[in-house]
């Protein structure tokens, strides 16, 4: 089967399963023309990187209000403004969706690892809020009438299998030794 | 008996705690936001912890490294650990069981409240 068809199927299945399990709703999904339905300054952008035989990113874009409603459902509570929990929950959603795609690609010959999610909240005053574990670098670029923002969101993820062997071995030894040191009387 | 929930997502930790409460279990739930904090929590409270629910991908010390460390320490190696993670491929599940041969179970996200309850019930009813 063609990759695009495999990916589309995996994404649709992941969306259906995630919405049903976590939000207790059945989503309706349709192909989009590429024009976003969201047209407001208060929006949340949650993305996660994919790197492996397949590379790219998965991005969720929704209004601040929808982000609050979504995480309210996740936590069975009433959230009316963007808090760290709303950002965290948005990141967790994109993480779970991407994980669902990854699992469904198992044994297809396509695989990838996931980055840590990045979540940005762009509010009316265009201030940027971010996840607690991530740093954000924001550049304002202008060249005549060309004006735009560049945002680099990053975090150090220390559990890559391909990290330098010495550091990885030392860290693993430290973890069990740390545990022994705390436990011993 | 306490339950230790290890996940870098505060929302996920809250969701799991809510499911535990709604299932009728009154066990105290301890939380840790990464493997390193989990090592601290487990080290100081291991005598009271009867179940660990652990994510995989976390900063500072991953879940897979945490369970590997736990498996090597006799005082805590027998505490049941359930991996609760988006990592659902056969290779990852196999890796988890290799790092901790006594791994008690594996739950792939997303999960419903009922699915989680079914997995943890046997350990909480003992």
Main features:
heterodimer; A: 185 residues; alpha+beta; 5-stranded antiparallel β-sheet; 39% helix; B: 126 residues; alpha/beta; 5-stranded parallel β-sheet; 44% helix
Any overview of this molecule?
The complex is a heterodimer of chains A (185) and B (126). Chain A has 4 helices and 7 strands, in the order H-E-E-H-H-E-E-E-E-E-H. Chain A is 39% helix and 25% strand. Chain A has helices at residues 3-23, 64-75, 84-104, 165-183; strands at residues 43-52, 56-63, 112-114, 118-122, 128-130, 135-143, 146-154. In chain A, helix 1 packs across helix 3 and helix 2 (64-75) crosses helix 3 (84-104). Chain B has 126 residues and is an alpha/beta fold. Chain B is built from 5 helices and 5 strands. Chain B has a 5-stranded parallel beta sheet, with helices on both faces. In chain B, helix 2 (35-45) runs parallel beside helix 3 (63-71). The model of chain B has no long low-confidence stretch (mean pLDDT 94). The interface between A and B is large, with 43 and 45 residues.
Topology:
The complex is a heterodimer of chains A (185) and B (126).
Chain A: H1 3-23, E1 43-52, E2 56-63, H2 64-75, H3 84-104, E3 112-114, E4 118-122, E5 128-130, E6 135-143, E7 146-154, H4 165-183
Antiparallel strand pairs in A: 1-2, 1-3, 1-4, 4-5, 6-7
Chain B: E1 2-6, H1 10-22, E2 29-32, H2 35-45, E3 49-54, H3 63-71, E4 81-85, H4 90-99, E5 105-108, H5 113-124
Helix pairs in contact in B: 2-3
């Amino acid at each position: 089967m063609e990759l695009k068809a495999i990916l589309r199927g995996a994404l649709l299945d992941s969306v259906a399963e995630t919405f049903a399990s976590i939000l207790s709703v059945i989503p309706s999904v349709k192909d989009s023309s590429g024009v976003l339905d969201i047209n407001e300054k208060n929006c949340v952008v949650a993305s996660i990187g994919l790197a492996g035989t397949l590379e790219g990113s998965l991005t969720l874009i929704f209004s601040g209000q929808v982000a609050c409603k979504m995480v309210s459902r996740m936590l069975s509570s009433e959230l009316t403004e963007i808090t760290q929990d709303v950002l965290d929950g948005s990141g967790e959603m994109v993480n779970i969706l991407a994980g669902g795609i990854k699992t469904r690609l198992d044994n297809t010959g396509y695989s990838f690892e996931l980055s840590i999610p990045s979540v940005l909240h762009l509010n009316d005053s265009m201030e940027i809020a971010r996840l607690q574990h991530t740093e954000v670098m924001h550049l304002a670029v202008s060249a005549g009438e060309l004006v735009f923002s560049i945002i680099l969101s990053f975090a150090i993820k220390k559990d890559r299998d391909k990290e330098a062997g010495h550091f990885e071995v030392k860290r693993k030894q430290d973890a069990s030794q740390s545990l022994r040191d705390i436990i011993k009387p | 008996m306490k339950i230790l929930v290890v996940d870098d997502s505060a929302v996920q930790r809250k969701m799991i705690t809510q499911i535990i409460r709604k299932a009728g279990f009154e066990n105290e739930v301890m939380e840790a936001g990464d493997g390193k904090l989990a090592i601290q929590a487990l080290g100081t409270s291991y005598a009271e912890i009867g179940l660990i629910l652990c994510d995989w991908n976390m900063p500072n010390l991953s879940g897979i490294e945490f369970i590997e460390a736990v498996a090597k320490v006799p005082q805590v190696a027998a505490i049941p650990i359930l991996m609760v993670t988006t990592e659902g491929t056969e290779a990852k599940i196999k890796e988890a069981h290799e790092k901790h041969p006594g791994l008690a179970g594996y739950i792939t996200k997303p999960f419903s409240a009922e699915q989680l309850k079914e997995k943890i019930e046997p350990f909480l009813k003992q």
